[in-house]
Structures are given as C-alpha cells and as structure tokens.
Design brief:
single chain, about 400 residues, alpha/beta, 6-stranded mixed beta sheet, 4-stranded antiparallel beta sheet, about 30% helix
C-alpha cells in the first residue's frame, strides 16, 4: 500500500543493496577471461577459476536465473547435474550486472565492459543529445549504433587475433543495432530452430584450432514475461532448452569448453495495486518528472529542471521501504553500474534510480500498457534477478 501522509517510511539504506561482482564474477568478466585463455591481446583473466580451453562456446539462455534453475531440477535434469560445475567448479553463480536486463547484459557479455562503460544502462534511458527516451533493446528512436556504443566487442578482438569466431542465433538478430554494438565480430550464422543452432555451434567450434562461439535462445524469457516463471508454459521451455544444452554438450569437439549462462533471472509479480505502483495514477510520484525510463523493477527517473531534489525526496518517501532509491551520483558511487561510469554515459542514468527489493513494480499503465501487464519481471539487484549460472561441460 502507498503510505499516507501520516506514515513515516524508513528508507532502505543504499549500502544494503547487493552490488554485482564486477571484475571477478560478473557477465562482463566472462568473454575477456575466455579470450585471455586463447591469447587475445588486451584481454584479462578476470575469472581465474576457469581453466583455458582451445575451443570455447557460450550458450546464453535469456531469462534463466540461478534461483529458477535450482527450483526446477525435474524440468532441467541435464543442467541440474551440472550445477556443481558452475563458475569453474565452485558451484556458485555469476552476477548479471545492473540493471539485470537483456540490452545491458548482452552488451556486457559481448564487450566485456560494465554498463557504466558500454553505455547501455537500462531498458530505456534518456539520450542527452535529444532529450528523448531511447529503447536500447528495440533501438528506438534510431540512434547511430557506434556513436552510442563505440567500444569493440571481444568477438572483434578475437577475430583480429586469428581466433575462429562465430555467433549462431535467430536470423532476425543478424543486423540489429544491438547485435552490431554488442555481439558482432567473425561470422553470424542465422538458424531458426534451437536444434539447428546447437548443431551449427558444434560445427563452428570444430572449425578452428582456437574458437570462440556464441549461441542464444530467447523463449525461456518470453514465456516467463507472459505467463510467469512458475507456469506450465515456462516449465515447458525449460525442459526444451535443457535438451538443447545436452544436444550441444554431446557434440563438443576435442579440447572444448561449453559455458551455459543467462542474462538475468526473473520474479513473478501479482497483478494487484499492492504490488504494482502506477505512476500514471499517482500525482505525487509524477510531480516534477519529465521522463520515466528503465522498467518496472529498475527505474530511471528524469526530473524537470530544478526539481531533482524534490523528486528524489518524494520517491524515497513513498517507495523507500520497498525500493533502493538513489540519486544519480549515489547510484554511481555505490557501484551499481560498475566501478567506473564513462562521462558520455553519466547523463543517460536517471536523476533518480529506483531498484526494487520487494515483489513490487513501478508501472505506467497509460504510457507502457503492455509492459505494465507482464507477469514475470526483472531488472533489479535482488538475487532472483542478478544471479545467473555458469555451467561448464568440457571435452
């Protein structure tokens, strides 16, 4: 319930928010570690638990969080048997990075940089040059991709170093701006079915003495959003992708390592006003707000000129017992977006940043009608959203 004017809300201390394991165990550390093992110049072994292999494949399952995998051993028997191998045999997960959302995470995977460095720090963020909200997943409104994210990908650096490099994914992703800035380099091979992707990924691994291959599956996330992570539809997708992992593992050529990971986890949020705070129906939260960015569990709030302090105070008062609510500089200082935020990225981050701790969303029913009705959600700093597997199979 929204507190009344007579209630006093003790805001959550910002230092109680878990910070992603940037530099030692986050998604941004994975490809640089694999590339370092392949001798790619300028890359570092950030995850020392991973033993180098001549041929490396990363299979990213969109939306498969660590906690969701642990909770469904019957639906994912093959992956569940690999849990002890996670993170180089430690049996521990990686962290995705903040926000725990696809655009930010895929950019972190592909570039080896944190959101504060690659510059995709949310689902939607303000473009400081235009003042408009920029959707970084759908890349709307159009923004020149390599001006928005100018850093080379790890795949590009590996390809230049003579490593056989390939991405195997759905054909529609080949020429998207997100692929250009996050996952390009080497050869893109579009395949429609999951089985085809597994077969082609194995072929590409074997195509070089040193190989770096990436493949991807999206519908675990899609069914989680539509139906929730405890639905029959979601469980069916988990069963299917478990068979895909086994199919790829059984085809690994010699001297290979397969790493199965994800971009974020997910939580189900009930469809009621207690769990969904609607900004479009709350004059207090709308006051002084020029743009509402991010997504329901990881909001960027952009204030009208002169209203920043007031917006922060109100959002902290109304939501501060359920969200970690920080000013931009506080969120940056806390390391949410990484240990360094590039100057070009600074103004893309909200004047106010709100990260959910509890099972609650900040929705906008008029501006974001479809997103406001999603069952499964993600984005914040909680373990259910942040922790992702790094299952390992070697040949």
């Amino acid at each position: 319930m929204v507190p009344s004017a007579w209630d006093f809300v003790e805001p959550l201390p910002l230092d109680s928010a878990p910070v992603p394991a940037y530099g030692s165990g986050s998604l941004a550390d994975l490809l640089p570690t694999l590339a370092a093992g392949l001798g790619v110049p300028g890359t570092v072994n950030a995850i020392p638990q991973l033993t180098p292999a001549d041929r490396n494949c990363v299979f990213l399952i969109d939306g498969l969080g660590w906690q969701q995998l642990l909770a469904h051993p019957d639906e994912a028997p093959f992956m569940s048997a690999l849990i002890a191998s996670s993170l180089g045999g430690t049996g521990r997960p990686l962290t995705s990075g903040y926000p725990a959302t696809t655009a930010a995470s895929l950019a972190s995977v592909g570039t080896g940089l944190t959101p504060g460095e690659h510059g995709l720090p949310g689902y939607t963020v303000r473009n400081p040059d235009t003042g408009e909200l920029m959707n970084q997943l759908r890349w709307y409104p159009w923004t020149p991709p390599h001006e928005w994210q100018p850093h080379p990908t790890v795949f590009q650096r590996a390809h230049e170093a003579g490593v056989h490099t390939a991405q195997v994914s759905a054909p529609q992703f080949q020429n998207t701006p997100l692929t250009q800035v996050a996952l390009s380099g080497g050869t893109f091979l579009g395949r429609l079915s999951g089985e085809e992707r597994m077969d082609v990924a194995a072929e590409q691994l074997a195509a070089g003495d040193r190989s770096l291959v990436y493949t991807y599956y999206a519908e675990v996330d899609g069914n989680g959003h539509r139906y929730g992570v405890d639905s029959d539809a979601w469980r069916g997708q988990l069963m299917y992708v478990d068979r895909l992992v086994q199919r790829l593992a059984e085809q690994l050529p010699p001297r290979s390592a397969l790493y199965v990971t994800a971009d974020h986890g997910m939580v189900d949020i009930p469809l009621d006003p207690e769990h969904r705070v609607d900004v479009d129906e709350d004059w207090e939260l709308r006051a002084g707000v020029a743009l509402l960015g991010g997504e329901g569990r990881a909001r960027h709030v952009y204030a009208v000129p002169g209203a920043r302090a007031d917006v922060l105070a109100v959002w902290r008062e109304v939501l501060g017992d359920r969200f970690w609510v920080a000013g931009r500089e506080e969120a940056i200082a806390a390391g949410w977006f990484g240990p360094r935020v590039d100057p070009r990225v600074h103004a893309r981050i909200g004047d106010v940043v709100a990260a959910a701790r509890d099972d609650v969303l900040i929705v906008a029913s008029e501006r974001e009608p479809k997103e406001s009705l999603l069952i499964g959600n993600h984005g914040s700093l909680t373990p259910a959203e942040q922790l992702v597997p790094l299952l390992e199979v070697r040949s």
